[in-house]
């Protein structure tokens, strides 16, 4: 059954979709449905040429049926429970459903269409109910619980013991110990939550259309690059405008193009389109009723299970364990961050005065003038920098080079495997001894069928029990160059490529027996650790020198420019951290409410929540406001948005440790691989970390990493 993985998939499953017409369901039963059997391609890679949207519905239906049958057989086994006939049998079950889910739920995010969205909408509540059907099976739970009660006599190794404990906890958290009436209520709650999160995400996609800003006069776009203007023109044409330009909003409050847009009125208009989305403005889409109902149901569910609130429920299996532990850590970080943002704001105000603007700093000014401050301080013109970051060079001589130096692995591109979009590239990954480790798919370019952001996914998770090698994909949103032009990318995107590769090697180096412990099946506040750790290689001078090469002249980036790029990468960290912390606090405030404490109004609740932590600065709104905070209201990050900075504490500490021990060398990589990257979820995350590091992580390296330490 692979409970943990299945849950992750379910959660990821509520990430992206939109309403649309019902698709026709053709005959797609076993014989002609490629999902019904394991792919015969190398590494069992998905056969994207053969898989069509119409195949998913029958594969989901049959997959659920199959897994339910298997779980009943395990539950009804007349033999007394053993680790093998219960836990291992569960690990082996549900293969059709897992195969279908892992392919489907990456497509819903990376290359969706109306048909896929319809199926997703239909399947989300069915999958939630299916999961309950298994986890609320009393006979099955009793077998697991019997094993758990006798666990010390079962002669289990560490991974087996953890698997047994985790499996039992999944049952308990799903409500296995509840009365029948409570179980019934739990099912209702789960189904409704699934509908609400699905609707929330569906609205978000519709909102990006609803809130796009039309500009008739090209002069108003002064300051945007030719690429940006061409993209805006194309977006307008896509929507049927014969002339004019369409400026799209992104998933965050801030909109990156505002950095360059000289027209202050237009900046305000675009910013407001972004920040006031989802509140029913002018009769538009309103996500607020969904939020209030969702928060209440989550609180009720947590209370049913014996937790004081949703955050307590969500943090129990994390490395942080309790909401208070998170608050303690964040409350130490907030004061130095605010000190930094005050300083940044003063610089910005000064810069605005040079333009004869004497108002307070507004949120639509911040990134625009921050860019000017950055240029004044570091005199970096992005158009001067980008030619040194050509995508292929960054990938091969930056990302792959670093992986090779650390771990001895190599990547070889291949063109014989089918892909779900022509932009997707496939690489075979070879281990240090030349053996094949797995497959790596790179899907880097932005397109309208892809949701925003960047992520890693496993099409196939490594498992020795199932004899599976990993098949991993990295998905990014790098603007696609015009035909025939090189992809010259921002330094942000360079770091994102390193970040996602950190997740990828967590999947690729996985060396575990049980599928539910494979790769990134670790607590959510641990999963961003290897990826954040990887980002720091991007700014190491030795590595930069290797990949930051001018695409035309072939000359390495000049030292002076390089130093500035490195220094500048710490610029605006106060703002970045504060907008993140503001979103984190919103998440925690929403999810530490009891079911009888739900407010009536989303916006006044937000205001109060931010003020409570001194994070209510007008110029620095949360990275996500509640009505478009998909991580917590559509994704799996409810009460877990803190996990990025929690993981970063580990990442900064580990990177500092590695630097103290000689930096980029095989011995360092091998140690990291042995204790962290190969272990998946086979042992307690914090225990693994301490074994790797020899001690607990120290928060001082996080402050140093963000350039915030001096203000403590
Ligand atoms: Zn990540």
Q: Brief overview, please?
A:
With 712 residues, this protein is mainly α.
Helix/strand layout:
Blueprint: H1 3-13, H2 56-75, H3 83-92, H4 95-110, H5 114-135, H6 138-149, H7 158-174, H8 180-210, E1 213-215, H9 226-238, E2 245-247, H10 264-275, H11 288-304, H12 310-315, H13 323-354, H14 363-378, H15 382-385, H16 391-407, E3 410-414, E4 425-430, E5 436-445, E6 455-460, E7 471-478, H17 491-508, H18 524-527, H19 529-535, H20 541-547, H21 559-568, H22 573-591, H23 602-612, H24 630-633, H25 643-660, H26 666-677, H27 685-693, H28 700-705
Parallel strand pairs: 5-7
Antiparallel strand pairs: 1-2, 3-4, 4-5, 6-7
Helix pairs in contact: 1-4, 1-5, 2-3, 2-4, 2-5, 2-6, 5-8, 6-7, 8-11, 13-14, 13-22, 16-17, 16-20, 17-19, 19-25, 26-27
The structure holds zinc ion (ZN).
What does this structure look like?
54% of the residues lie in helices and 6% in strands. It is mainly alpha-helical. A 5-stranded mixed β-sheet has the order 3-4-5-7-6, with helices on both faces. A hairpin with a 5-residue loop joins strand 4 and strand 5 (436-445). Mean pLDDT is 91; it is low at 1-27. Residues 499, 503, 528, 531 line the site of zinc ion.
């Amino acid at each position: 059954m692979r409970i943990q993985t299945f849950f992750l998939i379910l959660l990821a499953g509520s990430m992206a979709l939109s309403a649309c017409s019902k698709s026709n369901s053709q005959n797609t039963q076993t014989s002609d449905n490629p999902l019904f059997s394991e792919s015969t391609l190398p590494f069992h890679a998905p056969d994207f040429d053969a898989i069509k949207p119409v195949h998913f519905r029958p594969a989901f239906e049959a997959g659920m049926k199959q897994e339910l049958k298997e779980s009943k057989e395990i539950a009804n086994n007349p033999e007394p429970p053993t680790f093998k006939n219960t836990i291992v049998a569960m690990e082996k079950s549900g293969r059709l459903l897992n195969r279908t889910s892992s392919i489907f739920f990456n497509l819903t995010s990376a290359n969706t269409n109306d048909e896929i969205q319809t199926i997703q909408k239909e399947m989300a509540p069915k999958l939630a109910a299916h999961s309950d059907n298994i986890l609320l099976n009393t006979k099955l739970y009793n077998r697991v619980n019997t094993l758990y009660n006798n666990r010390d006599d079962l002669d289990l190794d560490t991974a087996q013991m953890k698997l047994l404990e985790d499996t039992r906890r999944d049952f308990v958290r799903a409500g296995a110990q509840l009365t029948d009436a409570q179980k019934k209520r739990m099912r209702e709650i789960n189904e409704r939550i699934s509908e609400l999160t699905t609707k929330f995400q569906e609205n978000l996609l519709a909102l990006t259309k609803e809130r796009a800003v039309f500009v008739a006069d090209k002069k108003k776009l002064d300051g945007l690059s030719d690429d940006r203007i061409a993209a805006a023109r194309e977006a307008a044409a896509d929507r049927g405008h014969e002339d004019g330009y369409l400026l799209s909003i992104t998933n965050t409050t801030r909109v990156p193009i505002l950095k360059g847009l000289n027209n202050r009125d237009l900046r305000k208009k675009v910013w407001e389109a972004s920040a006031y989305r989802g509140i029913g403005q002018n009769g538009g889409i309103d996500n607020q009723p969904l939020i209030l109902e969702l928060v209440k149901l989550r609180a009720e569910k947590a209370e049913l299970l014996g937790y004081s609130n949703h955050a307590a429920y969500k943090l129990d299996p994390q490395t942080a364990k309790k909401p208070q532990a998170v608050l303690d850590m964040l409350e130490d970080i907030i004061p130095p961050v605010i000190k930094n943002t005050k300083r940044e704001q003063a610089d910005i105000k000064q810069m605005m005065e040079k333009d004869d603007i004497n108002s307070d700093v507004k949120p639509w000014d911040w990134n625009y003038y921050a860019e000017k401050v950055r240029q004044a301080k570091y005199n970096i013109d992005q158009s001067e920098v980008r030619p040194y970051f050509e995508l292929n060079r960054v990938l091969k001589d930056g990302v792959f080079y670093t992986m090779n130096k650390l771990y001895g692995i190599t990547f070889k591109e291949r063109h014989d495997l089918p892909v779900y979009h022509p932009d997707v590239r496939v690489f075979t990954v070879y281990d240090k001894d030349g053996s094949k480790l797995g497959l790596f798919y790179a899907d880097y370019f932005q397109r309208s069928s892809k949701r925003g952001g960047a992520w890693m996914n496993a099409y196939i998770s490594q498992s020795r029990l199932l004899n599976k090698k990993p098949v991993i994909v990295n998905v990014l949103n790098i603007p696609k160059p015009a035909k025939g032009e090189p992809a010259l990318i921002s330094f942000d995107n360079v770091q994102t490529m390193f970040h996602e590769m950190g997740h990828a090697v967590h999947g690729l180096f996985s060396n575990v027996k049980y599928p539910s412990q494979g790769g990134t099946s670790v607590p959510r506040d641990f999963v961003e650790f290897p990826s954040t750790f990887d980002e720091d290689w991007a700014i190491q001078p030795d590595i930069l020198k290797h990949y930051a090469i001018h695409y035309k002249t072939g000359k390495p980036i000049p030292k002076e420019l390089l130093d500035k790029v490195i220094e500048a990468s710490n610029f605006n960290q106060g703002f970045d951290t504060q907008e993140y912390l503001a979103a984190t606090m919103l998440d925690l405030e929403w999810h530490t409410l009891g079911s009888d404490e739900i407010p009536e109004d989303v916006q006044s609740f937000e205001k109060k929540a931010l003020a409570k932590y001194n994070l209510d600065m007008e110029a620095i709104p949360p990275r996500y406001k509640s009505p478009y905070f998909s991580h917590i209201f559509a994704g799996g990050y409810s009460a877990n948005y803190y996990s990025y900075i929690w993981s970063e504490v580990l990442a900064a500490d580990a990177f500092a440790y590695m630097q103290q021990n000689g930096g980029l060398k095989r011995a360092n990589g091998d140690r990291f691989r042995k204790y962290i990257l190969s272990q998946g979820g086979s042992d307690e995350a914090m225990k693994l970390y301490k074994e790797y590091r020899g001690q607990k992580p120290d928060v001082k390296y996080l402050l140093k990493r963000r350039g915030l330490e001096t203000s403590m």
